[in-house]
Write a structure and sequence with these properties.
The chain has 75 residues and is an alpha/beta fold. It is 41% helix and 28% strand.
Length: 75
């Protein structure tokens, strides 16, 4: 399962829980129209698909994509 969200708290709660899933894509770009968001998500799935299948948190900004595998080590 992959969750798509604009909510920053979802990444934080997932990291703190030590969980291995669900995978999540956080879109950090505001004002995207539906078609643009759909194209963006297709690109992200092409780039990160394998990581998302194994459990990952993906953060998408205008500058790029960051992938962190789950569970996230909390310091």
């Amino acid at each position: 399962m992959v969750v798509v969200t604009l909510d920053a708290d979802f990444h934080v709660l997932l990291a703190l829980s030590g969980a291995t899933g669900p995978s999540v894509i956080r879109v950090r770009i505001e004002g995207l129209r539906g078609e643009d968001l759909a194209r963006l998500l297709v690109s992200v799935l092409q780039i990160c698909g394998d990581d998302l299948l194994k459990g990952a948190m993906v953060s998408v900004t205008e500058n790029g994509v960051r992938i962190r595998r789950l569970p996230v080590p909390v310091k």
